[in-house]
Structure formats: C-alpha cells, structure tokens
Amino acid sequence: MTSLRIRDIVSRPVVVPMKRPLKTSTGAVTQAPLLLIDLLTEEGVVGRSYLFGVSTFTLKPLHDLVQGLAAMIKGESAAPVQVERKLRARNTLLGPYYLLGMAVAGIDMACWDALAVAKDAPLVTLLGGSVQSVPVYNSNGLGIMPAAEAAKEAVELVQEGFRAIKIRLGRANAADDLAAVRAVRKSISDDILLMADFNQALSVQEAIKRGRMLDDEGLYWIEEPVRADDFAGCARVAAELKTPVQIGENFYSTYQMKEALTVHASDFVMPDLQRIGGISGWLRAAALADAAGCEMSSHLFPEVSATTLAVTPTCHWLEYVNWASPVLQEPLQIRDGMAVVPDRPGAGITWDETAVAHYRLD
Hints:
The protein is of the alpha/beta class. 40% of the residues lie in helices and 20% in strands. The chain has 2 domains: 6-121 and 352-359, Enolase-like, N-terminal domain (Enolase-like, domain 1); 126-340, TIM Barrel (Alpha-Beta Barrel). The chain is built from 13 helices and 12 strands. The strands form 3 sheets. The chain has a 5-stranded parallel sheet, covered by helices on one side. A 4-stranded mixed sheet has the order 10-4-12-11, covered by helices on one side. Helix 3 (98-118) packs across helix 11 and helix 5 packs parallel to helix 6. The two termini are 36 Å apart.
C-alpha cells in the first residue's frame, strides 16, 4: 500500500486522573485532559495521536478545531507534508500557533502514524531510524512541596527504574527552593541526575540570583527560568550561570526555535510535539538543533517522542510522564533507565476502548 486517502477524523476528549498530581509555580495539574485522534482512511488504515489540553476547558475548542480542519482535507491524500501545507495555507490569517497549531500537529502525527501502519512498520523505521532505546528522565512528580516530602518522592521515582528525575522550583522564598534541591540531592545517589524546572516563574534578575544560588548544587539543567518568549532575557540568564539552561517546550514553530538559537537563549532545547508542529515540525527542529550543535530533548508525549528522538542527530533526554497510559493498551516501556522505542506498526499507539469509555468527557 503506497498511498492513503483520508475518509474521516474522529476526536474524543478524555480526562484521566494522574497518579501524582503535579504542583508547579504556575498552578496544580491534577488530571490529564487529552484529545484522542483517530484518522480513518479509505483503505481501512487508522492513524492515531493525542493532544494534551493542559486544562479541561481547552478540550472542546481543540475538538472543534480538529473537526474543522478535518473538513478541509477529507477525501485527500494523508501524506503529512501535503496535509500540513494545505492546512497552514488555509489558515494563514488565523496564524499557525496556540490551539490551532496544536490541532494541526495532532493531525500531522496521526498522518505519520497511518503511513507507518500501512507499511506494517514501526514509525522509527519509516523515519529512517531503527528500533532502539533512548535516555529518559522521570517527570511524573516532585512538584512544589515541602523539602522532606520532595526527598521521599524522589526516592520513589528512582525506584521506578529511572536514572534521572526532575524537580519543580519557583517557591515564593528562594531559600525554600534551595532546601528542596538539597533534600532531594541528599536522598538519591550521586549517579542519579537531577534536573530543575521553574516553569517561567522568575524575572530575569531573580533568575540570575537563584541560578547562582543553585550553581553548585549538582543540577543537570535549569529549565524555563523566565517567560518562555523572552529569548533575550533567557540569554542573559544562560550567560550568567554555570548550570546549563534548558528551554523549548513553548516553541510554537521552528521559526521561534531558530530565533532562540540565534541569540543563544539556552544551552539545550526541548521542543514539544504538539507545539512545534507534530512530527513534521519535529524533524525540522531536529535539523536546526543539529546545525547549531545543540542537544535536543523532548517535552511530554513520550510514546511518540521516543521515536522522534531516536532519529534526532543531537538526541538528549526523553521526558517521561505516564499521563496517557491509562487509555493505552500498551504504554511505553522503561528498562534500565531507557525508554524502549516501540517495534509495533506506527508509533505503537492503540486505545484501551474500555478505559476510553470510562474517562470520556461528553
């Protein structure tokens, strides 16, 4: 089977409870609002993907956007490049960002999945790679909490089979952040890597102050210390700190990523599949990172990100969250601190329909 045509796109909102609610500097996330996407083809092949809405109220507009975009491409080729080009051209006046961009990315991911399924091949091989494992860190917990609680949870995260974990920072008092980092660092062995994420909580000057305070605390990186689109400000922070700075989950296009790389806004980058433009956008981002000699990690969507990282020249770290696992027949496997790229057809996503029916939001 060499070509596919789109018959329909079905999208279903679900709200899945999280095993470890995550409290960040910007608020608490206690459940995962997901939009499940099924791209149905005339040939009977189904391509699957999902979007993370962050807040439940985004699921209806995301669903409506996916359905509106689907109406523009029904009956046409499911070739990702062709689909993306048409959808972006038809929506130039709206702009390819935010919820609309996420909807386009969701369809793009489903197209790529369908192509690989049609060839009965893992998506990683369709993209020119091979089934392998990629380094992974556990991002399922360590929110804003007392230092003693953070230390206890850090041990639990490591015991799940991970060699790297991430703590959220951005408490009102800088000393409390320092205490939490020290408590966690003390509770885990020296060979366990510890990343930190401020979730854009700080001003540039406060980020420099807190970054210097944390420079000798054994952090692998400091993530999003300032407003996500303040690339000049983030570049000032990165230049002042010894600890590497990580940004990128809020790049809404490769154009923004190029701008960030040009001004040296960070030491590392970590695009998000639903914001960077799906798999098509990720491949462009990976080329940019390669040209800049910049290590590239992922943000969320570990089931698909494991595959895209496996074909990324500067592959760095996979961020692991298990938020979609309750609605998947076969969640992503972690072995010896590595994520195993699925060897099943496509990206390896198949819905657990009983769970989907249970968590579905009407």
